[in-house]
């Protein structure tokens, strides 16, 4: 039996399982009229399925698994070889709802166990907000393997869209979350192979979650079966998955995404009325689907969306989108009203798209002669750009070919070569032999080097990425018409690399070069320019130039505001940074206003950027603290801390940052017991995150010393603060205000122990530094000035006694 026939048989079997006894018998009688042998085989299989089979001393099929620390609540579903339970996982007092999956005891064999163990490895490697994460895995009391993933309370994607009456744009935005999750999995070398609505849920917070990697395949491993036809679902299968001699790769997931997208936007199947298995197989293999705009009645589906969907559904995998990221990029362009890559090559398409988008501004220029000249210019530019894009695509493809050429087959089979080592080898060859080996022009070679650099940087190979970017710039800059977008992007990425090394001056210089090139071209309002100003502000802040950082942030905000809605994510981040800058200046009310606007902008993003939201909420809590709205600040800290733990887990640096910010509230309120409790909790977390050379541990020790100061325990405060000051190395400029505050605290403790002119002078020097760079909490400056006055009185009194 070939893969397609087997898949038809399996689909009939699964469909019959869903029916009651009467409907099942009627369906079998209808099938027996045309295919009596298939009907007879299905009767035998259904009868066998209802007969329990004991496997040695293992429990019968369908028996609930017995797993330590888990309480099974109810069955969520079952398939041909496994079942899924809703379970409660208990560890001490903590409880968590999970989906517990296990192979049916009477069905599993060595191959099934290998597939199940591979699913566990795959899920363990995935960490993405739109993929249900692995929680636990192991074996039950009878030795059968199980895995547990986070339980997602939600609706199937298609049903969610229908029940909530979502419009076309909202449906596409949800689908973009799914495409982003699939793209992430592909970057981890994982192909899902069973993308369908029942594996896609929309959770109560409105976010998509991709489930069930049970038949997913690691691209760098051998497949367990040749085609996986025994596992996948026919309606969403790609043509190559129905052919016994064809493998299922990235293109198969692209096709399945295309089917889901088609149904989501049109409300119809791309295969029309074909529902019976034989007709479905024929349609998948040979029938070209109608454009979605012609298949369904939903309004708003234009030719661009038709082209995107049909490109994903092409029969030949090589003619589909080459990656899920490319599909995602086209859908995002459609949402923004921009030209889509799926229609690249259509004569006049780019021009029509531009005219449609900017018609109100071009109406005044409709004179025939000017329009004709403009048309010719645009066509020529389009041809030039098409040629350059073709060269860029060839360059990138050459890089990836070279990447795999760098692998020794023996090492690859033995698993002795890592992805990073593979990247390093290809990087060396690109730099050493690239000018003579690849036979392409300077522009294309530079694009190949830049593509390689981006991959290196993502993998943390900054030295290799820096060398490749510099070589690309050396090729681009002498060209008669240098590609300014690519050059400024390379300068920007080099700045990011310098920042990661702590070279803030170098990072700022590179970012300023990029800004200068943009402004020399007359660019004063592009989205990219806003990003450049935003990065420059961060580098200035690291160098201690607070006012320069604030000025750059204001420029970035103005440019990004002009580019809404496309720039909304960066605009929200910039507003948040502006808010924190105002807090450091002591303008708490202004900072609070900026942070509230940042929250509003971030809330409009689909999907909302949760990490950005948590940083904004931490800033809002700090602004409420600075405004001395203590009750509101305490509630805000409690909520953002709970949200951060739910999103990141309990052991994440963002949780530590929130705790430390919350600690400052208790110190301001002189609530010493709660301050000490948070200090202990934060110290334990910081030690787990980075046990050695963690400067935040020194800050916590200084905070504990402030508790002693507040209690009048000056000798204990001095004992803690002296090693803090000694342990401070070359601090970042942005942290120097905190160090000045620690010096002030140490000087005051010593003044209270033995008032002298020397302790007074040390305290005065620290206060002068704090006036130039106030710390957070801003009230720390007023406290230090109070210490100085008190110390002065004590010095005078001591002199009088002497």
UniProtKB/TrEMBL annotation:
The keyword Signal does not apply. ATP binds at residue 101. It comes from the Bacteria. Residues 70-335 form the Protein kinase domain. GO terms for molecular function: kinase activity. InterPro entries: Kinase-like_dom_sf, Prot_kinase_dom, Protein_kinase_ATP_BS, Ser/Thr_kinase_AS, TPR-like_helical_dom_sf. Coiled coil: none annotated. This is Serine/threonine-protein kinase. It comes from Tahibacter harae. The lineage of its organism: Bacteria, Pseudomonadati, Pseudomonadota, Gammaproteobacteria, Lysobacterales.
